[in-house]
Design goal:
Length: 560
C-alpha cells in the first residue's frame, strides 16, 4: 500500500513523553526493526527508510525540532520511506524521530544533522588491506562488529590536517569506541580513547608526508555488536566547550571556541534567542573551514559576570571587581591545579539563596566544590559530594553586608579546560521530573474518550513549598491533564492524561510538560527580571537508570 504526500508538521513538543490516541486494536501489530539513513544535511531533503513488518497507512512521524519538515512518501508492508528536510540554518547535532501506528506501536530513533556528506559503512572493511576508501570530508554511518575493527582509507596531501571524531552518545549507542590512525605501512601514528567527559573521542592530526592513511575504529569492550557509530572526517574544530560558557539570552556575546585541552582556536559571536535557562547547541566553524562542530552553551536569563583570566587586558575594575548582586550568573575558570576562585556577594540577612553549577553539560570535566563564608570567614554552607554530575548549594544568609563564595575542583585539577558556570539566585525554586523508576513508562497509548495514562513524578523543592501547576508547552489538541495541580509541599505526584473527542488521530506530537509555580509571589524579582517560576519536566535521572551507558545523554532526550 502507498500513502503519498502526507506532510506532518512537527510541533515543538518534546521528548521522553509520547502520547498516542489508539483508534482500534489490531491482531496484526506492527514491529519496527531499523531505520536506514542516519544523517540529515541542512537545507537538503534526505530519504530515510523505516523497516519492519505489517506496516500500514496509519504510520505517523514527528521530530524533536520545529525546523525539520517530515513527509511520508511511501508505505509498504515491510518498509516506509520518509523524506526529512532540515532548515538551511539549523543547528547541527542529534534529533529524535518518533514513529507511531494507530495500533499503539511506537519506535524512536536518533538521527544527526550534519554538514558532511554521509557514507555508509561497507561492512567488509575489517582489515588494513580491506579498508574502505573515503574522502577527507565525510560522516560515516557505521555499525560496530563486536570483536573486529572497521578500517577506512583516506588520501592526504603534505601539510594538510584532518579532524577525526566519533559520536556514539549522540545517537544513543552503547559502543565505547577507540580510534587509531596508521600510515600506509601499518605503523601507529596516534590513537584516541575516552576523555574525562565520556566514551566518545576526537583528535586532529597534521600530515607532513603525502600518501594514504588508515583510520581504525573498534569497541574497547568487544561487546557492542550491531551498535551504531558516527565517524566524522573533516576540517571541523575538535572542540567541546567555549569561554565564557554562559551567555545571556537575547544578547550578542563573543565566545572563544576551545580545543579539548582548553586552548583557544578562534572567536565566535553567539546570539541566543530569549528562552529558558538551558543548554543550547551552537555551530562552530573556522573562518576558512568547510565543516563545523556543535558545541554546548548555557543560556541564562540572569545578568552575567565573567571572571577576568590571567593575561587578559581587562580594566582594573574587572581585575578587582565589586561585590556582585544576587541574582547573577558567573563564568569562571580554574586556571591552575589547586586553584581556588572567590567571589564577593552582597548579602541580606535572612535571604535564602540557591547556587547551581553547570560543568559537564557545557563540555567541562570540572567537579565544582563550593563553600560559602561570612565576611569573618565563618563557614555558612558547602556542597555535599554526590553521584550527580553537577552540584548545588542552598543557604540562608546570616547577616547584612557581604558573603564570600569559594569554588575549587574536588580533585584539585586546573587548567584551560576547567571552566564552570555558577547561577546564584534567591531560593524559591523547584524541579519536577519523571520518577526515576525502571517501571516508569515513557510512551502512553490512550483509548480515545475512555482511557487514561498514569504518570508518576518526583519533585525537588528549594525554598518553594507552594502548589505547582502542570501544563503543556504548545498543547497537543485533545490531550488534557486530568489533575494538573501538585499539592503544596508534595514531593511526589501521580497525574493522569486523557484524550477527548477533539484529539486528531491522524497526528502525532512529542509532548512536553512544564511545571509552573501556582503562587506567583513565591519567587522574588530583581531589577533584572523575575527569577524563573516555571521549569520543564525532566527525565535525565530516569534516562540514566534505564540506559546507564549514556554518560552524556543528548539534550533532545530530556523532557516529559
Amino acid at each position: 500500500m502507498t500513502n503519498k504526500g502526507i506532510v506532518l508538521r512537527s510541533s515543538k513538543l518534546i521528548i521522553g513523553l509520547v502520547v498516542l490516541g489508539v483508534l482500534t486494536s489490531s491482531a496484526f501489530a506492527q514491529s519496527v526493526t531499523s531505520l536506514q539513513g542516519r544523517t540529515l544535511l541542512p537545507g537538503q531533503t534526505k530519504q530515510l527508510t523505516l523497516q519492519g513488518t505489517d506496516f500500514n497507512d496509519s504510520l505517523r512521524v514527528a521530530s524533536s525540532r520545529t525546523d525539520i519538515e517530515l513527509k511520508i512518501v511511501q508505505v509498504e508492508p515491510t518498509r516506509a520511506v520518509i523524506e526529512a528536510t532540515p532548515a538551511a540554518d539549523t543547528t547541527l547535532g542529534p534529533v529524535v524521530l518518533q514513529f507511531a501506528f494507530a495500533s499503539g506501536v511506537m519506535h524512536q530513533s536518533l538521527v544527526l544533522v550534519d554538514d558532511l556528506e554521509p557514507v555508509v559503512d561497507a561492512g567488509n572493511n575489517h582489515t588494513l588491506e580491506s579498508a574502505q576508501s573515503i574522502s577527507t570530508r565525510c560522516t560515516i554511518e557505521g555499525t560496530c562488529d563486536a570483536s573486529v575493527s572497521d578500517f577506512y582509507r583516506v588520501s592526504m596531501a603534505a601539510g594538510e590536517s584532518l579532524s577525526i571524531a566519533v559520536h556514539t552518545q549522540a545517537i544513543r549507542s552503547p559502543m565505547d569506541p577507540v580510534v587509531r590512525l596508521f600510515d600506509a605501512s601499518g605503523s601507529l601514528l596516534t590513537e584516541s580513547d575516552d576523555d574525562q567527559l565520556g566514551p566518545d573521542c576526537a583528535f586532529s592530526y597534521p600530515f607532513e608526508v603525502a600518501g594514504d592513511y588508515l583510520v581504525e575504529i573498534h569497541d574497547s569492550r568487544n561487546s557492542a555488536s550491531g551498535a551504531p557509530y558516527q565517524l566524522r572526517i573533516g576540517d571541523f574544530p575538535v572542540a567541546q566547550q567555549v569561554y565564557p560558557p554562559s551567555v545571556a539570552a537575547g544578547a550578542t556575546t563573543t565566545v572563544s571556541v576551545l580545543d579539548r585541552d582548553g586552548q583557544r582556536l578562534f572567536d565566535l559571536p553567539v546570539v541566543l534567542p530569549v528562552g529558558r535557562h538551558q543548554v543550547v547547541e551552537v555551530n562552530a566553524r573556522a573562518a576558512e573551514g568547510q565543516s563545523a562542530s556543535w558545541i554546548p552553551v548555557w543560556r541564562s536569563q540572569l545578568p552575567q559576570h565573567i571572571e577576568a583570566l590571567q593575561g587578559d587586558s581587562a580594566p582594573e575594575s574587572a581585575q578587582h571587581p565589586q561585590p556582585l548582586s544576587i541574582p547573577v550568573g558567573i563564568s569562571g575558570r580554574l586556571e591552575n591545579p589547586g586553584e581556588v576562585d572567590s567571589y564577593r556577594l552582597l548579602s541580606t540577612k535572612g535571604q535564602a539563596i540557591r547556587i547551581t553549577t553547570h560543568t559537564r553539560s557545557v563540555g567541562s570535566a570540572t567537579l565544582l566544590k563550593m563553600q560559602l563564608f561570612t565576611a569573618a570567614d565563618a563557614l555558612i554552607a558547602e556542597t555535599k559530594v554526590s553521584e550527580a554530575d553537577e552540584w548545588s548549594l542552598e543557604a540562608v544568609l546570616p547577616e547584612d553586608g557581604e558573603v564570600r563564595l569559594q569554588v575549587t575542583d574536588l580533585l584539585q585539577r586546573g587548567g584551560a579546560k576547567y571552566n564552570y558556570v555558577l547561577e546564584i539566585a534567591p531560593a524559591s525554586t523547584f524541579t519536577v521530573a519523571l520518577k526515576a523508576d525502571a517501571a516508569q513508562g515513557e510512551q502512553f497509548p490512550i483509548e480515545l474518550e475512555h482511557g487514561a495514562a498514569a504518570i508518576d513524578l518526583q519533585i525537588a523543592r528549594f525554598g518553594y513549598d507552594g502548589a505547582i501547576d502542570l501544563g503543556w508547552v504548545d498543547s497537543p489538541p485533545g490531550i488534557r491533564i486530568v489533575n494538573p495541580r501538585i499539592a503544596a509541599a508534595a514531593t511526589t505526584a501521580r497525574i493522569y492524561l486523557a484524550a477527548d473527542s477533539t484529539w486528531q488521530p491522524h497526528t502525532l506530537s512529542l509532548a512536553k510538560l512544564q511545571a509552573i509555580a501556582a503562587d506567583e509571589t513565591a519567587s522574588p524579582a530583581s531589577d533584572h527580571g523575575a527569577v524563573p517560576t516555571s521549569v520543564l519536566v525532566g527525565s535525565r535521572e530516569l534516562r540514566r537508570l534505564k540506559e546507564p551507558f549514556l554518560v552524556n545523554a543528548p539534550d533532545c532526550l530530556d523532557g516529559a
